[in-house]
Structure to design on (351 residues):
């Protein structure tokens, strides 16, 4: 028992060593780092951090943020001035005097909205729709049982009848889904969940059982048996970019549209989630594992045949992803930078 405890402590220390080394290392500023920067509409916490830091995930260290402040960085607005202070042993960022921005035509009080972590227009569909479900997650959800005029396929403007929402309010909004492909862990080969296929939106035009709905914003053909989920409010977790406090390593298991490769400003699915310690705002490094290189050595023979030598090529780090939504066993992350194509199966790990 004593040996097991000692081994566990040593293992934890070895895993934590790279993190502690990172925390002790000097913060690296950009070569052309500005002494001050005025925040403008369209900026994100990531883009501002990248103006000052070579490692944007170390943003909280520059502000001396605690854990609660990392989760609620709603204090940077357009017009704010960020000043670089180099007077101490480590550089710090501080707020200067706010600059009044010139008004823009057709703007809607642009200075009243805090700066988001990453571009919201890209990730909004992944925030407003519960895309990852359990294997039986839609079994008890309301379903379309018939269409007006006995149509087989439905689209925007069509009317359908739904069972299971007799208490729904008039004009309430519902999203329409169909179970999609399973998300398989490439390491354990276990099913982590199912990516539900979003088909379109609808609103209740007549309450009852069955209720009547009208479809709008259809993205694919809709039919009998498709399921409904109540549309919830859009929640944008505006966490500051930061590295996980514990060792995390996983793989990319899917990308938007089912493509085998993708790139910056695209969303990928990871085989790690809340159960593994991930949370919105975590930044992970992209890693391509080195392949085994086979080489024939003609000058050396093995029982009359050419000997084949195997060399493991080095692993290569080539980019960063920003985790913005987590489920129990999977997460969505936005590719922030990549010097090569991002492939399904590539590794993500602490930066």
């Amino acid at each position: 028992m004593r040996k097991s405890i000692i081994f566990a402590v040593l293992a934890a220390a070895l895993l934590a060593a790279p993190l502690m080394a990172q925390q002790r290392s000097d913060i690296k500023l950009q070569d052309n780092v500005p002494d001050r920067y005025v925040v403008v509409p369209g900026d994100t916490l990531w883009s501002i951090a990248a103006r000052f830091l070579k490692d944007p995930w170390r943003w909280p260290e520059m502000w001396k943020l605690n854990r609660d402040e990392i989760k609620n960085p709603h204090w940077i607005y357009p017009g704010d001035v960020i000043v670089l202070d180099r007077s101490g042993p480590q550089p710090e960022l501080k707020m200067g005097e706010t600059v009044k921005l010139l008004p823009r035509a057709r703007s809607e009080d642009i200075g009243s909205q805090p700066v988001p972590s990453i571009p919201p227009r890209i990730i909004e569909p992944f925030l407003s729709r519960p895309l990852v479900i359990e294997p039986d997650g839609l079994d008890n959800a309301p379903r379309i049982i018939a269409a007006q005029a006995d149509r087989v396929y439905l689209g925007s403007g069509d009317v359908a009848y739904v069972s299971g929402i007799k208490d729904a309010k008039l004009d309430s909004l519902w999203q329409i889904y169909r179970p999609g492909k399973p998300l398989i862990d490439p390491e354990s080969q276990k099913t982590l969940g199912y990516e539900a296929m979003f088909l379109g939106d609808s609103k209740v035009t007549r309450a009852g059982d069955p209720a009547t709905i009208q479809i709008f914003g259809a993205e694919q053909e809709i039919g009998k048996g498709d399921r409904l989920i109540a549309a919830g409010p859009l929640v944008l977790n505006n966490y500051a970019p930061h590295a996980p406090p514990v060792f995390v390593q996983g793989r990319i298991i899917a990308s938007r549209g089912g493509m085998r490769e993708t790139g910056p400003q695209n969303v990928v699915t990871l085989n790690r989630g809340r159960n593994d310690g991930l949370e919105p705002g975590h930044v992970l490094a992209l890693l391509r594992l080195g392949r085994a290189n086979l080489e024939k050595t003609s000058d050396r023979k093995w029982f009359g045949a050419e000997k084949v030598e195997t060399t493991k090529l080095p692993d290569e780090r080539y980019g960063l992803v920003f985790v913005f939504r987590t489920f129990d066993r999977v997460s969505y992350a936005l590719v922030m930078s990549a010097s090569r194509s991002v492939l399904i199966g590539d590794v993500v790990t602490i930066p």
